[in-house]
Amino acid sequence: MYKFSLVSFFLIFYSCSSEHSQIELILKDNNPLIKKVYQNIEKHNLQILYTQIEKDSSGNSEFIEYDFQVDDKQYFYPASTIKLPIVVLTLQRLNELRNESFDINVESKISISAQETKKEERSFKDLIAKVFLVSDNSASNVLINFLGYNYFNEEMNKIGLSNIVLNHKFNPDPFVNNNWKIINEEGKIISSSLSQKTIEHKGITNLKQGKTQIINGEKMESPLDFRFKNRGSLRDLDGVIKRIIYPELFDEKSRFNLTDEDYNFLRYWMSRFTYEDVGREYPKDSVYFDSYNKFFIYGDITSSSDRKIRVYNKLGEAYGTLTDISYIKNYEEDVEFFLSATIYVNKNETMNDNIYEYDNRGIPFLAEFSRQIYQFEKLRKH
Fold first, then answer.
1. Which residues are CB-neighbours of 162 under 8 A, at least 6 positions away?
2. Domains defined along the chain, listed by start
3. How far is CA 268 from the centre of its chain?
4. Backbone phi, then psi, for 315, in 5-degree steps?
5. Strand duo 208-209 + 181-183: pairing
């Protein structure tokens, strides 16, 4: 069911920041969806990382990275993009539990309960599917209880992705303050303690954003402070995607501890469209649509997608910031590349008022920019 074949590659990285890179050629184009952002580039905290995949006749692979304003020290709020490494580490932790003689896998039923919340039975597969299909906060928060903050942050640091930091759960979620107890089918508690070392972001710029914010319905004349919120640099988040698609191209110490089945499972769910999964029905209303979980290529298309171009991704949307990290592949045309980007669209500089330019500026920009990169890749390969 989760088939995904890969050829073994030898990896070489090149990083290019030339002013004549394809990124800047597209940004300077007269397309109105692009121009609207580029004309006010200083207001958008735009970062873009685009990776070409070159293969020689022997099957060796060369990655050529092009970046625009990518800065590990420049803060942006990662929102739901950080759910991707949460899911990855969930699969890794299940492997560790099996090595400790627990009889458990993604299909296993688990009991989830809290002091004042009714017990329910779910599977890790169901929770993970909801994270990818509709970016479900409640499902993600249960997985945080399973892992624990310290485990997450230590594992990210261990494989060289220290710019990804988890400090808190996701809102809105009516049960966000619940300390979920997770019990497997054998009756053993497998959830972690949520005691944590909260990590303050030091040496990072742009940690205070906006000029005003809404708190409990009141407008406060102060910026929002992100010093203790979740964090993920664009390069490290992009590194998570690359480790999922081509794990063998990283040395063992830099990989996640996953099986081939785990990787295929991840690739399957990352590439699904919201209405593609048979058996899960989400209301076809103003909230959900087929490409609800894709900014790149399909983000401004709310009708049914043709799905010919597969986008393996996790996006994030909060506090006026839109981010998508992805691997894009058309199997029929043999076109593939990595693309990650983040953009800030908060014209009135007020946080938590839900008045952001997502639909009329941010998402159309990301969709059109990615389509132009795709067309360039198509011409380049053929």
1. 156, 236
2. 11-381 (3.40.710.10)
3. 15
4. -105, 170
5. unpaired
Query: Mean pLDDT score of the chain, rounded to an integer?
Result: 90
pLDDT digits (tens, 9 = 90+) for 305-348: 678 999 999 999 999 999 999 999 999 999 999 999 999 999 99
Distance CA 18, CA 68 (A): 9
Whether 366 contacts 296, CB under 8 Å: yes
How would you classify residue 344: left for phi > 0, otherwise alpha for psi between -120 and 50, otherwise beta? beta
Contact 79, 318 (CB under 8 A): yes
Pairing relation of β-strands 181-183 and 109-114? antiparallel
φ, ψ of residue 157 in degrees (nearest 5): -65, -40
CA–CA distance, 364 with 303 (Å, rounded to integer): 15
Distance, in Å, from the CA atom of 350 to the CA atom of 320, rounded to the nearest integer, reads: 9
Q: How far is Cα 16 from Cα 62, in angstroms, rounded to an integer? A: 13
User: Which tokens go with 64?
Assistant: 């050529």
Residues 341, 106: Cα–Cα separation, whole Å: 30
pLDDT level of residue 115 (50, 70, 90 thresholds): confident
Under a CB-based contact definition with an 8 Å cutoff, are residues 190 and 102 in contact?
yes
Give the amino acid at 242: K
